[in-house]
Structures are given as structure tokens and as C-alpha cells.
Amino acid sequence: MTAPSSLDWFKSSYSGGSGTECVECARTGDDTLLRDSKHADGPVIAVRSDTWQTFIRALADRLI
Questions:
Q1: Which terminal residue of the chain has fewer beta carbons within 10 Å of its beta carbon, N or C?
Q2: What is the model's pLDDT at position 45?
Q3: Which residues contact 41 (CB under 8 A, 6 or more apart)?
């Protein structure tokens, strides 16, 4: 999947400071989109927003 350029992409606050290991996200109505910031024109992964939130919560639980 290639995402439209009009999306508001953002990087995680946990992305590496060197700029070499960043994942960017964008939200649509029902999905969260993920892409490699080094390859912004490359493939995009679409994940249902509720599934993405479950994933983020599970990560947060492991970090506590």
C-alpha cells in the first residue's frame, strides 16, 4: 500500500536520535499507517486503530 501524501505523518518520541531508525505513523478514520521514515515513498502498513491501541498498551505494560 502507498499512502496519500496529504496525511499528517509523525515520528515516535522514542525514535532514535540519529535519524536512522525512525518509524512514522499517520492516522486515518479507521487505521493507523506505519512507514519507514527513510523510505517515505515506500511501502506502508495499515493496522486497524483499535488493534494499534492494543499493541501500544501491551508495550507500555511491559515497560512499567
A1: C
A2: 94
A3: 2
Quick one: cell of 15?
A: 525514535
50: left (phi over 0), alpha (psi -120 to 50) or beta: alpha
Per-residue three-class SS string for 33-63: EEEEHHHCCCCCEEEEHHHHHHHHHHHHHHH
pLDDT for 3-60, tens place per residue?
555 889 988 776 666 666 688 999 998 999 999 888 888 999 999 999 999 998 998 8
Which three cell numbers mark 17?
Answer: 536520535
- Rounded to two decimals, the pTM is 0.72
Q: How many residues does the chain have?
A: 64
